Predict the 3D structure of the following.
Amino acid sequence: MRKKKKDNWVLNKNQINQTGFEVDLPKIPLKAGSIIAESFPIFFRCFSVILILGYIPTALGLAGSSLLIGTNAALGLEEAKFVTPGDTINFISAMVLEFVVASVTTALLVQLAYDAKLRRTLHFKRYILPTLKAFLPIAVLGLIVSVLSVLGIIALIIPGLWISAVFIAVPPAIVIERKGFAALARSVQLTRGYRWPIALVLVMAIVWSIAFEFFGQFLVGLVDFEDGVSLRATVYSVVSTVGVGWPAILTALTYARLREIKEGISVDQIAEVFE
C-alpha cells in the first residue's frame, strides 16, 4: 500500500486506519431486507397518525385533479378525455399535481418515521411546519424526480428503478438536512454504491402502491349511487394515503441507513433536528 496525497482523495472514516493509509475494508451492506422488515411495525404502530397526516394533501390533490379532468377520471373509474388541446393541458396539470402531492406526503411522513422508530411522542406541528417551509423545493424536485423515473420506467423499467434509487434521499435531505434544491446532489452522494440494493426496496414500494391503487379503484367502484361523490373521494383518499404511507417509511429508513453507513450518524442524531 502506498500513501495517497491528501489533495487527491476523499475517504470516509470507515476506510482509513489510524496510520492514515487506505485499507481495503469490505463494503458495508445496506441490508434491504432488514429495512423492509423494520418498516412494517413502524407503519402499523403509527397507522392512525399516518392516515391523518397523509389524508390532507391527498384529498386536496384529488379535489384539484377532479376540477381539471373530472371526478371519475381522477378516481380512475374512466379514461381522461382528450377532445381539445385544453383537455391535454388539464391532464398534464393533474399528473403534475399528483406527483407534487406524493412528494409532499412523503416529506411529511419521513419525519414521523424517526420519532416512531425511537418511540418518541408524535407531534403534528413538528412535521407540518418544516414541510410547509420547504414546500417549493419539495414540489419542484419531487416533480423532476417523478418525471425522470416515469420516463425511465416507460423506457425499460430498470432505468426508472435506478433513477428512483439515485434520488430516494431527496425528501429527507430537504426536510431533515435543510438542503433545499441541493438535495438532488446530496441524494446522488448518499446513494452512490448502494443503488441496486435500494432498487430492491423500491420494487416492494412500487408493488405496494400499485396494489393499493387498484384496491382503491375497486372500493370506489362499489359506491355507484349518484350522491356518493363525497364518499368515493373519501374512500379513495384514505386508500391512496395508505399506498403512499408505507413507501414513505421505507424512504426514511433507507436514508437513515445510508447516513449510518457513510457518516456514522445514528437515527437519534438525525431526529435531533426536530428538537
